[in-house]
Amino acid sequence: MSGIGDWLEERAGYKTWKERKRDLLIPNHVNFFYCFGGISLVIILLQVLTGFFMLFFYVPKPEHAFESVLYLNNEVPYGWFVRSMHRWGATLLVATLLTHMFSVFYHRAFRRPRELNWLSGVCMFIIVILFLVTGIILPWNWRGYWLLAIWTDYIGSWPLVGEYLKMPILESFTVGRSFITHVWLLPLFTIIILGFHFKMVKRHGISGPL
């Protein structure tokens, strides 16, 4: 193992990078609630891994979507476990992001010069909600169908713009389009926004106490 470590150090500077990260100072005021951003990132990475696994078995067509989910859940080894991780990971991600945003708001870390940190984080939360919406539709079972109907009825009740948005939403959130949005478009936006968010965090550092 030491030989592999020396090989990586000579070619990539692995040990130097690891020591530099280990020597970074952590402010004394940082507590458990400052960790929810990192926890959310870990959950996002797990969602990527479990979602990539399910891609091999899911069929994004209304007549085959639910059957492919049943096959994954009942026939594929550990398929039920991966799907459960993905499903409950989405719920847990919303909870950790809300906790992270509440912590940032409580510590007033959205103030100057961290306005862009806050705005990019809010955009990321909206994207996660869209992940949740499009993901629930994909199995195309009774739950996905009626949730889509409930959401569109709710949006249709909005004053002035509701009726104009209702039909475009029903036409857009088909199984195929939801699949493309869930698997291609939203991950692309996630990479861009997370990259910008981490760049801003690195630039301004962790906010201080009140």
Which helices and strands appear, and what pairs or packs with what?
Blueprint: H1 2-12, H2 14-22, H3 36-55, H4 65-74, H5 79-106, H6 115-137, H7 142-156, H8 162-172, H9 175-204
What is the gist of this entry?
The protein has 210 residues and is mainly alpha-helical. The protein has helices spanning 2-12, 14-22, 36-55, 65-74, 79-106, 115-137, 142-156, 162-172, 175-204. It folds into two domains: 1-30, no CATH class; 31-204, Cytochrome Bc1 Complex, Chain C, CATH 1.20.810.
Task: Describe the protein.
With 210 residues, the chain is an all-alpha fold. Helices cover 75% and strands 0% of the residues. The chain has nine helices and no strands. The longest helix is centred in the C-terminal third of the chain and has 30 residues, at 175-204. It is globular and about 55 Å long. The mean pLDDT is 88.
Number of domains: 2
CATH class of the largest domain: Mainly Alpha
Counting H and I runs of at least 4 residues, what is the number of helices? 9
Architecture of the largest domain, according to CATH?
Up-down Bundle
Instruction: State the low-pLDDT regions, or none.
Output: none
Share of helical residues: over 70%
Q: Which word captures the global form?
A: globular
Instruction: State which percent range the strand residues make up.
Output: under 5%
Oligomer: single chain
Largest sheet descriptor:
none
CATH H-level superfamily of the largest domain: Cytochrome Bc1 Complex, Chain C
Secondary-structure element series: HHHHHHHHH
- Enter the CATH topology name of the largest domain: Cytochrome Bc1 Complex, Chain C
Average pLDDT for all residues: 88
Radius of gyration: 21 Å
Number of strands: 0
Through-space gap between termini: 46 Å
